[in-house]
Amino acid sequence: MKKVLVLGAGQLARMMDLAGSPLNMDVKAYDVRSNTVVHPVAPIHVYGDLAHGIAEADVITAEFEHVAHDTLATCEASGKLLPSSQSIKIGGDRRLEKQLLESCQVPNAKHVVIESKEDFEQAIEQLELPIIFKSALEGYDGKGQWRMKSVDQAENIWQEMSDFIAQSKSLVPQGIVAEQMVPFSREVSLVGARNTHGEVAVYPLTENHHTSGVLSVSVAAPIQENLQQQAADVFAKLTEKLNYVGVLAIEFFQVGEQLLVNEIAPRVHNSGHWTQQGADTCQFENHIRAIAGLPLGSTHLVRPTAMVNILGEDTVPNEVLAIPSLTMHWYDKEKRAGRKMGHINISGHDELELAQRLVALANILDDQAFPDLAQFAKKYLSRVSK
Amino acid sequence: MKKVLVLGAGQLARMMDLAGSPLNMDVKAYDVRSNTVVHPVAPIHVYGDLAHGIAEADVITAEFEHVAHDTLATCEASGKLLPSSQSIKIGGDRRLEKQLLESCQVPNAKHVVIESKEDFEQAIEQLELPIIFKSALEGYDGKGQWRMKSVDQAENIWQEMSDFIAQSKSLVPQGIVAEQMVPFSREVSLVGARNTHGEVAVYPLTENHHTSGVLSVSVAAPIQENLQQQAADVFAKLTEKLNYVGVLAIEFFQVGEQLLVNEIAPRVHNSGHWTQQGADTCQFENHIRAIAGLPLGSTHLVRPTAMVNILGEDTVPNEVLAIPSLTMHWYDKEKRAGRKMGHINISGHDELELAQRLVALANILDDQAFPDLAQFAKKYLSRVSK
């Protein structure tokens, strides 16, 4: 049995454990708030502190990119951390992310890094309006993002932005990345894995829908070969550059027939949860396989599958369980408005059947709790009925 | 979160937990040897004795039919046991099983219950040779079964049989069921579920292959409608008669176009492990749904799928993981000759692809550890290639 320590004790570590147990993996989770190693599914069981967890583990990985840098350094010093601290940090800092994209010549939105008033003015000069300003480090609750549609807003935005930077408590200096807003037709993401032997496998591109800035629905279905190839090429370039090991997700804006990278996440990803039901091997198992040096499992799409996030709710009507092919994935978390509490996976033998089942699901679920689902399902049904 | 206590702490309880966690079920397992309630996946964690486990549980179920009768009585007295102790006991006593089959007028092998020398003589008179004698209660290591091909063997067999009965330490009197051997073409089994509301759902019939009397391979693929219907009818009759709640498995002998019941198991079953990968909802989740009063999940076959048991081995070559659609299911048990240590699930988009993958698997696995697999895979490939 191989022992895996996951930095972070949320739903991603939980699902790594559920996928890892059948593969004979002993997965434990490091809860950064309590500084203890816990059972990922039954966190009531505590196994000591980080040092002990590191000593016990065969391999260490992360379920989120905002791990404290000293923690990453300690883990990396053990020689067990995969992916590398460099890869994890890139996911947590938009400046590093942009540097990586540029160094790999990967298409992305035109941007300027802002660290001073001069940079800010240059950004307005160099980029076309509208511009979106994003904090380089973690933002939260919609903070750390500003949209500029007219230069009249410049003074106000600069004021807010410089206050925001000044208030940062991060050990790493906060900064801003200004991006020219992209007139995209949709957002898609690619989840894939690269193992310790350099073997790569990517899942089909997933189409993502957001509600108030949070992912609400992902759909995986057969997709145009040219888009899939573009995304796979980007995945190969980035992961090779980083000598990346594990699952990595890339979010893209689709503009015409071109994909521009929006951001990358050095971990299993919400837009890959559908793989638990719709793919030969799920992203959680492939992450474990990758970091354990095992062959990657096939990422083949078994049948069209959608994932619906459950936000801020700790129950849904039991009747949804009667919908064929529907499985619930609760995270056993305390209810909090907007919090990711679980997700629903649902499949069909073709997209029409999937769309019909999504409509049936939306009819049962509460409109307030799933505000955009009914509309999405109806549109999707009309699209695939043609 | 609903709390489930499973009587038995083996792989079936383990897989109920892995399937139950995403459904927001807290599954615990009662280890009869240590008389403690433990975590089904991490049995290092102990939660007290049976009385405590019963008090904490919302619903109690069993992963094996040979639970001590006083334990069943205690659990039933709590009003939480599903299926009923009667149903569980029937699975543990061939006499009760035969009574049930007869009372439901379900086709099965001609038989005589033996409790005395007179019964024994009557069995030889009433049944055609060859006859198989099976102990009514649990046999082990091939003990408790005798085959008679000629009446010359009668004296010897009776001697062994009466010694065997005399040595029984069971509180329930041991007995023997004599069965006329059935010239079957193959063995198939039906796994299905019935929930607290009387809703029934059955999986497609599975074809089973045994090696030295132990299940080695099960294959689930589209099957003749008339056989499926016969089996489903038997399932409906038996479960209604018992007011059964949970998953139940029925093993059949196929003779021509008729199915004769061989035996029933009042629980999730080894021949249903393929459902983890090949069905809309796996048998473990459906068992939990059934006893928790939730709607049953669809039992639809997503794609042809086989299950290969791992007996007496605690490792297989890593390269098997490179076969598409293949997943490992280890039980984290100590290695012991012949012991069920895990299983492999493998699928194909059709039977031809499945058969090709089984051949690839057999080519990698050790012949000694999987003695009949290569031959089975070759035959299966030749059958589906036609």
TrEMBL record, chains A, B:
Q: Name one GO cellular component term.
A: cytosol
Cite the binding residues for ATP: 94, 134, 139-145, 179-182, 187, 210, 262-263
Q: Which UniProt keywords apply?
A: ATP-binding, Ligase, Nucleotide-binding, Purine biosynthesis
GO BP annotations of the record are: 'de novo' IMP biosynthetic process
* GO molecular-function terms, A-Z: 5-(carboxyamino)imidazole ribonucleotide synthase activity; ATP binding; metal ion binding; phosphoribosylaminoimidazole carboxylase activity
InterPro entries in alphabetical order: ATP-grasp (IPR011761), ATP-grasp_carboxylate-amine (IPR003135), ATP_grasp_subdomain_1 (IPR013815), PreATP-grasp_dom_sf (IPR016185), PurK (IPR005875), PurK_C (IPR040686), PurT/PurK_preATP-grasp (IPR054350), Rudment_hybrid_motif (IPR011054)
- PROSITE patterns linked: ATP_GRASP
Under SUPFAM superfamilies, the record lists: Glutathione synthetase ATP-binding domain-like, PreATP-grasp domain, Rudiment single hybrid motif
In the Enzyme Commission scheme, what number(s) does this protein have? 6.3.4.18
List the catalytic activities from the record.
Answer: 5-amino-1-(5-phospho-beta-D-ribosyl)imidazole + hydrogencarbonate + ATP = 5-carboxyamino-1-(5-phospho-D-ribosyl)imidazole + ADP + phosphate + 2 H(+)
According to UniProt, this protein's pathway is: Purine metabolism; IMP biosynthesis via de novo pathway; 5-amino-1-(5-phospho-D-ribosyl)imidazole-4-carboxylate from 5-amino-1-(5-phospho-D-ribosyl)imidazole (N5-CAIR route): step 1/2
Q: Name one Pfam family in it.
A: PurK_C
Q: Where are the transmembrane segments?
A: none
What job does the chain carry out? Catalyzes the ATP-dependent conversion of 5-aminoimidazole ribonucleotide (AIR) and HCO(3)(-) to N5-carboxyaminoimidazole ribonucleotide (N5-CAIR). Catalyzes the ATP-dependent conversion of 5-aminoimidazole ribonucleotide (AIR) and HCO(3)- to N5-carboxyaminoimidazole ribonucleotide (N5-CAIR).
Family in the record = Belongs to the PurK/PurT family.
State whether it acts alone or in a complex, and with which partners, per the record: Homodimer.
UniProt-listed PANTHER family: PHOSPHORIBOSYLAMINOIMIDAZOLE CARBOXYLASE, PURINE BIOSYNTHESIS PROTEIN 6/7, PUR6/7
Protein's name in the database: N5-carboxyaminoimidazole ribonucleotide synthase
Q: Which classification does the entry list for the species?
A: Bacteria, Pseudomonadati, Pseudomonadota, Gammaproteobacteria, Alteromonadales
